[in-house]
Amino acid sequence: MDANAAIALRGVSKQYGAVHAVTEVDLCVQRGEIFGLIGHNGAGKSTLFKMMLGLVAPSSGEILIDGKSISGRDFRATRRSLGYLPENVVLYDNLSGLETLQFFARLKGAPLNQCQPTLERVGLGSAGQRPLREYSKGMRQRLGFAQALLGSPRVLFLDEPSNGLDPQAIRDFYATLNELRNTGVTVLITSHILAELQERVDRLAIMSAGRIQALGTVQALREQQQAPLHIELVLASEADALVASPFFSGVPGLGVQTTAQGTTHSLVLTCPRASKMAVLGLAAQLGSRLLDLKIQEPSLEDVFFGLGDASRRAA
Ligand SMILES: Nc1ncnc2c1ncn2[C@@H]1O[C@H](COP(=O)(O)OP(=O)(O)OP(=O)(O)O)[C@@H](O)[C@H]1O
Asked: How does pLDDT run across 34-46, given as a tens digit for each residue?
């Protein structure tokens, strides 16, 4: 167990009666990492978050945040350096955005003069005086993010933070996370929008039925799973003839599909990683018949579904 890590878990489990919400989780998140946690509904992500925050006691196992045990006496001080955006943040409609942040700042012991700059940081600078009943869903979510940022946390736990955000707001949100990461802040984030996480996390864990099924960078997970690549060959002449010919038949495990759009014909090859160079070598032999070549890595969604039924199981 790495006591220098921002977050270290060993053998962490949580049972609610007969329900095994989290089972034997080992995890280590380094300082300054943006770490994603994905999994089906009921996989145990929120429970894991709540245990790391000290809000729910583990049934067994050990959790260190910044080297401090969450069950230790000095965890109260560590807790002040944590920020949490819950999946459903409860807000009071009659308070303004600024009053809401001031309320959370008092609870957290954060300086009140951080509230207005934090509102500005999440793009709500001019909406601070308006009551929350006038806020849109996305504005509420930004305000939830703002309260998580109060007190300049060293570790941020964000449970589905981009819910209800428009594309520009999602960009702004991740730009803020990158700025925070550059100052050494550690970010744990859950999302069901895998395409959004794919380019934005340093590493991630895939949870299923309370357990971590896979862990690593997106690229490492692709390789672990041996998820196939898609290689598209755009051809000058009709592709069908090429499929009929034994051109690619020597490459093991290759799936071949033809597509046609107007006068352009393409071959889409589903290619095992190990056969990539063999396919590229053959493609080079097509000479001027090959107009273009596109290689598409499997998406995080492909990796997720590649884990089989377990990754899709709902509670
Ligand atoms: N307070 C509780 N009492 C009993 N069971 C609970 C409690 N909280 C969670 N569970 C159960 O623990 C399991 C994990 O739930 P959890 O909320 O951690 O999943 P999740 O991965 O966050 O799901 P989602 O993606 O739907 O938010 C589920 O079976 C859930 O019903």
From this structure: 999 999 999 999 9
Tell me, using a 6 A CB cutoff, whether residue 46 lines ligand 1.
Answer: yes
Structure tokens at 121: 């940081």
- Single pTM value for the model: 0.87
**Using a 6 Å cutoff on CB, does residue 45 contact ligand 1?**
yes
Cβ burial, residue 229 (10 Å; 0-12/13-18/19+):
middle
In angstroms, the Cα distances linking 165 to 23, 63, 207 are 32, 32, 24
In this prediction, residue 14 carries a pLDDT of 98
We find that the CATH architecture of domain 228-297 is 2-Layer Sandwich (3.30)
Tokens of 260: 């046609």
| CATH classification code of 7-81+153-223 | 3.40.50.300
Residue closest by Cα to atom 2 of ligand 1: 16
